[in-house]
Amino acid sequence: xxxxxxxxxxxxxxxxxxxxxxxxxxxxxxxxxxxxxxxxxxxxxxxxxxxxxxxxxxxxxxxxxxxxxxxxxxxxxxxxxxxxxxxxxxxxxxxxxxxxxxxxxxxxxxxxxxxxxxxxxxxxxxxxxxxxxxxxxxxxxxxxxxxxxxxxxxxxxxxxxxxxxxxxxxxxxxxxxxxxxxxxxxxxxxxxxxxxxxxxxxxxxxxxxxxxxxxxxxxxxxxxxxxxxxxxxxxxxxxxxxxxxxxxxxxxxxxxxxxxxxxxxxxxxxxxxxxxxxxxxxxxxxxxxxxxxxxxxxxxxxxxxxxxxxxxxxxxxxxxxxxxxxxxxxxxxxxxxxxxxxxxxxxxxxxxxxxxxxxxxxxxxxxxxxxxxxxxxxxx
Length: 380
Known about the structure:
Elements: E1 7-11, H1 15-25, E2 31-36, E3 50-56, H2 59-69, E4 77-81, H3 84-92, H4 94-97, E5 101-102, H5 111-115, H6 118-127, E6 135-138, E7 151-155, E8 167-169, H7 172-179, E9 188-192, E10 198-206, E11 212-225, E12 228-235, H8 243-254, E13 258-267, E14 270-277, H9 285-290, H10 294-302, E15 319-322, H11 324-332, H12 338-347, E16 350-351, H13 360-379
Parallel strand pairs: 1-2, 1-4, 2-3, 4-5, 15-16
Antiparallel strand pairs: 6-9, 7-8, 7-9, 10-11, 10-13, 11-12, 12-15, 13-14
């Protein structure tokens, strides 16, 4: 039976977006792609699995293009989000989109945005008996008493902050430096800093019928910057034990459908919940490589195709992978040695930028990075 539902991938100019495009493309489903980025160039749009792509400077411009380019049809189009900004934008335009598209959102307008608030999701996690670190809120830059140091700062809403807002603070003076800077956001979640034994994440999809599918667990073996994997491994998710059932209950109670990822810290036998990303994860292509194609499963569930979940024996673990952009950043900033990079590449099963079936995005990005580096002296 022919399927005429169009697929729209909406997100940033990064490997989060490329992972969805490739996962669907490998199943014969090519995509329309909208990138929100200040640049006029996109390595993502070089993928062979794209029907047509556009770059706009804002998510609002992307939404206007979606509404104009994809009129109401008998077969509803399917939207995938690959950035927090994209998820926020489609939730903000819920009423204009819901009758024409399958949306990776909760069933009511604004509900997903509420879940993206770290204060709310931490409260929900605690209600489902999931361990969370000690946490405090900073609203409008007002720092409360009783914060335990060292602590880590995070934007209360990711869409209102940036990587610079994530910092480890040893004392109140360092915390004030972050919070009171005009270049940062105004509202934060502050958490006790846990000297982790390891940091893991689990990826998954809530299918259109409410079933939850999990990938293996990703163990960050090396970071290129705070929160970003450079070299990691995906292995069986049995290490999470009962936390998988608690997480499933949380997700099903939320009413969300779509791709997601969840982050945890591990210390002294306890997993501490950090956050849920309601979108495709940056490492979202890794489950596809192991044999569990989460984007295609959600796509199939939207169309009522009753997707078959691969048996565990057909999922290939462990899967070591390299995140080339983060690895390169870590090398430039002298956090990762060249020897470590060589070792990582030799051990890796999967790469998030290089793909032997879809090479153009990798080569285009390498050329752009090279041109950017050699032109730096002339930009000063």
